[in-house]
Input
Amino acid sequence: MSILEQFSLQGKVALVTGASHGIGFALAKALQEAGAVIVFNSSNEASLQKGLARYREAGIPVHGYVCDVTDEAAVAALVSQVESEVGVIDILVNNAGIIKRIPMLDMTAADFRQVVDVDLNAPFIVSKAVLPSMIKKGHGKIINICSMMSELGRETVSAYAAAKGGLKMLTRNICSEFGAANIQCNGIGPGYIATSQTAPLRERQADGSRHPFDQFIVSKTPAARWGTPEDLEGSVVFLASDASDFVNGQILYVDGGILAYIGKQP
Ligand code: NAP
Ligand code: GCO
Output
């Protein structure tokens, strides 16, 4: 197989969860450009319609569905509907995620549970729903969108870091349990990426200056910039393709070097 054929996704069906915008949209765009048929879901009809319009404007053919990824019955129904309307899912990208930035002593258990439900329980639910058909087909790719917070903590993101740390270990466990069935499960760990999720950390201050956190992240990142969703496109095609058939249980950090860097002396 030529190197370009190794990276081709022709004939594959990819489900990217929560891909109406942001990182998920960029990942779906890249997978489609590599040849995959794209399926995505949104948590509600309004977001689905906005997402469908965004894909239409970009000339990207997609199949879109409403599905709350934390709802096991809804996920089972989604996978069954996709299998009958589009085809068996060859590639799953567990992208849907939320964050709550609340100091731990102020965070309710309900807040904590909600973040873990979307960021950790849902990847378990959706992976469990797609694995049987992948096993029957004799191959499959599961890509979990982890985070720098799979490795590091910081104030106010206890639930998110716990969930993303768990997602790193779920990735390794799916690898362990299904590697023999030719299923590869890896993670992508984005650094700080400019999306709606991190918009509050980049808001201009009243005096027009950059947000202190924005300045902090740029100073801590060797690439000296925030990442963009497009920075993640190559890594998702690699992990979704035959080129990564002997890569399993790994988290590929796409972070501009921030995890490797202790930071400049003040
Ligand atoms: P985003 O713009 O907030 O998008 C998150 C997506 O998740 C939304 O499209 C949302 O879909 C979907 N979602 C949330 N709850 C859902 C549910 N219950 N059911 C179905 N879909 C649901 O965030 P993003 O920055 O693109 O992040 C995408 C992923 O990358 C997340 O897992 C995030 O943790 C991770 N990540 C982000 C960064 C970053 O710096 N931005 C860095 C590392 C990792 P709807 O709009 O339909 O509700
Ligand atoms: C935060 C940010 C981060 C990013 C990302 C970093 O509040 O610290 O939202 O958590 O979203 O996960 O990799």
The CA atoms of residues 202 and 211 lie 5 Å apart. The domain at 3-191+229-260 is CATH 3.40.50.720 (Rossmann fold).
